[in-house]
Design a protein that fits this description.
Helices cover 39% and strands 3% of the residues. The protein has 155 residues and is mostly helical. It is flat and about 75 Å long.
């Protein structure tokens, strides 16, 4: 019986020890633009796929990507609002906003019940009167204790 227990401990040590190697760390890798015989052009860096736009570099429409024109916050939307966009907006609101602002936008979300500061109601007149560009800035850049959501909510 003692021999079986010792065998199990040894087997467990071997199994656990096999995960302690740093193979990925010691793997051969190429530096950018380093010569490599694998590819016909001998360049380790591969060309970008046609029409690739680096993140953050296609923002040539200030109305759409910044919520402003010539530094002034915009009113309205850059394109007609469709039923599909409204449904996506509701989906994004339920995922990201309702935790704080509540499912109806009253500012009574779950975080308030957990003791965090209450966010403003989205039905406040000052927010209803605010230009849409202001709401865009708040969502993408954050405001007060609200952190930015620009990387989570894409146009």
């Amino acid at each position: 019986m003692k021999r079986i227990g010792s065998g199990c401990v040894l087997l467990l040590a071997i199994v656990l020890g096999s995960g302690c190697r740093e193979e990925m760390r010691n793997d051969s890798r190429l530096k950018p633009l380093q010569e490599d015989a694998f590819f016909a052009d001998r360049n380790s860096s591969r060309p970008l796929v046609p029409n690739t736009v680096p993140r953050g570099h296609a923002n040539n429409d200030d109305f759409f990507y910044q919520g402003e024109i010539n530094g002034k916050l915009v009113r309205g939307f850059p394109s007609p609002v469709t039923r599909q966009e409204l449904e996506r907006g509701r989906d994004r609101f339920n995922i990201y906003c309702s935790v704080c602002h509540g499912p109806t936008g009253e500012g009574d979300g779950m975080i308030v019940q957990r003791g965090f500061p209450q966010p403003p109601s989205l039905h406040d007149q000052r927010l209803r009167d605010a230009p849409e560009g202001h709401l865009f800035h708040v969502i993408t850049r954050g405001y007060g204790v609200m952190y930015p959501y620009a990387d989570r909510i894409t146009p």
